[in-house]
Write the structure tokens for this entry.
Amino acid sequence: MPFWRRVGWLLERKQKVSDLQEELEFHLEEETDARRDAGVTEAQARRAARLDLGNPVVIADDTRAAWGWTVWEQFAEDVRYALRTFRRSPGFAGTAVVSLAVGIAAATGVFSVVNAALLHPFPFADINRIVTLGMNDKGKPRGLSVTTRELVALQDTGVFDGAFAWNTYDMTLTGEDFPETVRTQYFSANGLNVLGVPPLLGRVFDEADGPAGEQARRVVVLTYRFWQSHFGGRPEALGQTLHLNRESYTVIGVLPRQYFATDPEILVPLDLKFDPTFASVGDRAWPVQARLKRGVTPRMAEQRLQPLFDQFAKEAPRRFPKEVRPLVRSVVEEERAANFVPTLVLIFAASMLLLLLACANVSILLLARGTARAQEFAVRGALGASRGRLIRQLLVESLLLAVTGAALGMAAGYWILPAVLKLLPPDSVPVGSLLAVPVDVPVLLFSAGLAMASALVCGLSPALSFSRPRLTATVRTTAGVESRRAHHLLLAAQIALTVLLLAGTGAAVRVLIGLYQTSLGYDPHNVIIASINLPENSHTEWADRAALYERLRKQVAAVPQVESIALASNSGIPPRSGQQSVVDVPGQDTTGGGTAILQRISADYFATVRIPLIRGRVWSDSESAGTPHVAVVNQTMARELWPDDSAIGRRVRMPEYIRSTSYWRLPAPGSDGWFEIIGVVGDTPNVGLHERPAPSIYVPYTLMLSDTQYLILRTSRDPLSMTRSIREAVQTVDPNQPVNAIRAAESALADAGWARERFVTLLLLGFAAFALMLAVVGLYSVVSYSVTCRFKEFGIRMALGAGRRRIVNAAVQPAVLAIVAGLFAGLALSVGLNTVVAQWSIGNLNDPVVLVAVSLVLFVAAMISAAIPANRAASIQPVNALRID
Amino acid sequence: MARPATDRVELLQGTLDLLILGTLLAGPRHGHAIAGHIRRTSEELLQVETGSLYPALHRLEANGWVAASWQLSDKGKRARYYRLTPAGRKHLVGEQGRWESMSRAIQLILKAAGQEGA
């Protein structure tokens, strides 16, 4: 059927209607003329013609039906009618709309994160060709780090359009009131071009800014965020100078908003110097990413890289294991495989559950209202409205609620989503894109779909139940048993789902608490880390630098409220600490596998962060001044290398300690690289909170003095309030020495590993709170409508002598039964679903503590919400009740 | 003079469209003329109810089988004239063919039944 014709007609609707009028009048006149011509009087002819025509209103109606927009007319009528009804009961409409709005907002918000994280993870051009290079060590995937020479060799294979090295590091920005730590992304100078990142302003750096073998130019590219926060988004930022690590860097460009939106603040080219000293020990080596040439698959790339990797293995056996095979993985796949995905799926499921709860709740509200409107439906039915017509009208009402809710929810989502994203752990979601497009077409479609679906879900059961013609309802005002049964069924279902959601949340919260309490192996409370970066080429003699650090230690230790202090040469605080280093163990084949996390610390480190000593001893301060070659290992290392418990007394060798390095690392005089193990300490997470601890070896920091030193302090009160006194203490040693980053160990912990759990838990807590609210509202409306419906009955019963207690019982009992049934169903559901949910390891739904707590909370909330209407039932005055109707 | 109503034949479902389209084959007509033509041509056997005629005309128009325009009638009054569109002509041919085979089939069955009865 020509749809456009009907649309056209709809537009000239008024004209059409008057045309039809005229057409029918013409017909009438013709008929009159015809009859008059046949010989009857004018009056008779007119009368006969009118009789012949029939009812012009009906004819006009029928004809209009042929135009094909009756449905739309009725729809508009229904919408107007529904709006009128809502205006009459704003409490109901408001509750329903808000319920659906929150439900839809939650689902849409989570969906848009899923959409951004899983479906459109990266803003980079032609992202599928961007790969991360790794190593395949006899089936085990391992990270790859390459030196400048190796990077150049990789670029020359012809497999890639470009390959670039990268690194992230903190730089210290000076020149303002306080030195500030800036998260910095290093790329070999071609990196941004290989990724295809365009500048928003100025230019991005390219090969000319950091050619292989030369010192890179001191230029810096700002992320949009940094540009906004430090230059107020002014274009004059270009050409300005930033003092980073006491060097002057020129701002050459600003990136568009969607690039590197979550993590680094600035980007600088990496120095690609050829440095034979470090190449062999892997110190100046970086991870590599590359863009595959068009038509080259990761598998093909792996094959073609094999000869080069064989050569690498020959040249640098310490970094490349025997029989190494290249590993080429698309970054998109890597991200999809990341741990965060199941978490997102879980949250998404929870948000859908929440929406379902909101629908159930609106359903209950509609049912309750329907009971009160039974009379209206009966009258409409009696006046000839068909069942389909009534169903349509009721569905239009719920559709209107859902669409309003969805619109509200979307608006809320638009504002709330950025706040939610802030809770996301920085590493858990791929860089970029998230902040740029929080709401796009798929998200809008999804939300619209949700609105339709929820309208159907929450509107269908009331629509079906009320469209049944029940003329008697006009007479009986005490009845509604049937619809009350439907209420209670829905209520039980709602309670059951709420229990499930609450149990899930409870389990997640317990995981979080457990994580915090048990598995850390140290006590992060009131511990802070400050870092100090010596100016380049200062204190270049070992003894001089050792003395400086010792003075620093003493000064800071003297600050009031500082309970203890330790020094560490790399961020010495779990859950990520130390650096992978080669450890040779006599008598063991350690090729490739002989690495441990090396932590260079002062003796009081263990006491300060409270890592327990398991066996043996820790070196003493006096020993450490004499640079003894001793080491302490963690339990994992002791167990893995010496399963027979014979770690203490063993000797290991660390090649790093043999070679003389440059100013940023000064080895103690007379070091031969051999260490004797004198103690074993407890495990702490050192490669992330969710990973098992890796083997770790602790040695005195004095054996290799770095130009970066960390001060780890345990204080007796809120550590961050001491920032100023620590700075002052450092400045008494050297007034020009800035203290870079001062962070609480707890906040580092939260950001590094905890963030994901915190995010999930907060979100689930929000969901659970809302679900609980919905349950309370649902229950309240069920009981209070049941009281309203049975007002007269209660009045009669009281007049006949029933006590208030009996009336309250009668009002509340069915609801209580529904709650109890729902509770048990929910508990069964939680236990039953445990195995499914356990796959995402977010806790144990079977946990009896959680289940009991959840049941109690729900039951108490339910009782309170039932008490208010029950109280109303108890205070009925029989006389008033009997006067109604 | 019109015959008494009892002598009239009720229109079969769906045949009204066919009659209207057939009537318009001869040229554009307004609603009243179409009804008159059907009555006269059927020797007063078929009487089209106004209540069915106009919905049918508008439905045909919505389907694109007839087109309507306002013209002056022979008496000089503004009237809505309907004419057959090419699509309507095609539709008519198809419907006519169906109608003819249908009525032939019915006749055959009735004839056979009459012979058996005799």
Q: What stands out?
A: The first helix of chain A runs from residue 3 to 11.
